[in-house]
Amino acid sequence: MHRVVTRWSPLHVALGLSFGVATCGVAACGAANDEAPHAHRAQKVSRSQTPSRAQKGPEHPTSKQDRASTGRIQKDDRAVPLSDSAPPHDEEADQVLRLSGSESTSLGGPNAGSIEGAVALPRRGRGFRHNPRRPQDARYASVEVVQALIRAARVVHETMDGGELTVNDLGYERGGPIPSHGSHQNGRDVDVLFYLNGADGRPMPSVGAPLDPEGQGVDFKDLSDPSDDVAVQIDVPRTFRFVRALLEDPVAVVQRIFVAEHIRTMLLREAARVSAPSAIVERFGDLTCQPSYPHDDHFHFRFFCTAEDIRKGCLDAMPIYPWHRAELRRLGVRPKWAGTRRLKAPITTKQQARRRAGPLHKSVRRWLARREAWMKQPHPGRRYCR
Ligand SMILES: [Zn+2]
């Protein structure tokens, strides 16, 4: 028996099937993969900044008729262009950036909490988009967190032409439990896909495809149909630039970065290549860890409560680092620990998971077998995080 949660994408059903791993039930979450548009919940209206347009439809508008019946990936299928360029005006994001952090208040902890005055991440802005295939009512977080995402995406957009950040789930407008996640409850958690390139090395819209130790993966889409597979590769420079910008944010303070060990290694190598500031490299090294669900298809970022929110009841998860305690002391406040209470995900059997996954073509089965290598605890000395 193992835990699974609702809203499985086909690939994540298979991941549960093959590895007996919950996407949820750990403090961090999984289920980063896109879900089918028909699974969208009814859309809520933002308090003030919700953009008016919904973006729907497939991310890879490729034609199956054009593909060879052998199932091999054709060159044209691999070259998936970005959907379109970023909007010239970014008024919705600018509106969010003008908000005061005092407008939102996180209450309780990431695994048992709520939020007042949450703000929605705009569906699209300069250098970013919310994944149109994720639930549109899960775009809410604290003002500081949404602002930090917008700022960091802009840094990448302005310093590295091309590419686009894809943000998956944040939380609900009032916080609380959210399907597919054990946390994401008090407006301080967000899932972010890695920047990806297609097989031609050009930026493409990100998808929640697990990546191997070389940073390569496959967007399998229909797991029974090899002809719609698209090869993808992590865009390490853009991904690291985004993380660096988030760690350098003037307001929001990152508490944890849940990510697979091999992705962490790649990003540390990139940090050395670009001679990133040592303080950022150390901070990144300290904050990153691989949970039991390995997060090889997305980051989960968690942010500390602000001093103001701590005074009103915001609780932090561990660890609370000495440098953060010192900063809070300077601000005259002591952090409060959220404790270990967490959401229990529903239980299903391996047989149920197998039935849900349906038929898997050979490459999918081979990939899932390979993936076992990094599903286990990375190596002695660095434990799983929770
Ligand atoms: Zn998450």
Description:
The protein is 28% helix and 15% strand. With 386 residues, the protein is of the alpha+beta class. A four-stranded mixed beta sheet has the order 9-16-14-15. A four-stranded antiparallel beta sheet has the order 11-10-13-12, with no helix packed on it. α1 (10-19) runs antiparallel to α10 (350-357). The chain is globular. Residues 1-8 and 17-81 have low confidence and may be disordered. The structure holds zinc ion. Residues 28-29, 181, 184, 189, 191, 300 line the site of zinc ion (ZN).
**Total DSSP E strands:** 17
Order of helices and strands: EHHHEEEEEEHEEEEEEHEHHEEHHEHH
**Multimer state:** single chain
Structural domains: how many: 1
How far the N terminus sits from the C terminus, by CA atoms, comes to 20 Å
Question: C-alpha Rg, in Å?
Answer: 20 Å
The ligands found in this model are: zinc ion
Average the pLDDT over all residues and give the rounded result. 80
Quickly name the level 1 CATH class: Alpha Beta
Briefly note the CATH topology name.
Muramoyl-pentapeptide Carboxypeptidase, domain 2
Question: Which sheet architecture does the biggest sheet show?
Answer: 4 strands, mixed
CATH architectural type: 2-Layer Sandwich
- Range of helix content: 25-40%
Contiguous low-pLDDT stretches (5 residues minimum) are 1-8, 17-81
Shape: globular
* Helix/strand structural class: alpha+beta
Name the beta content range: 5-15%
What is the topology, as strand order, of the major beta sheet? 9-16-14-15
Number of helices: 11
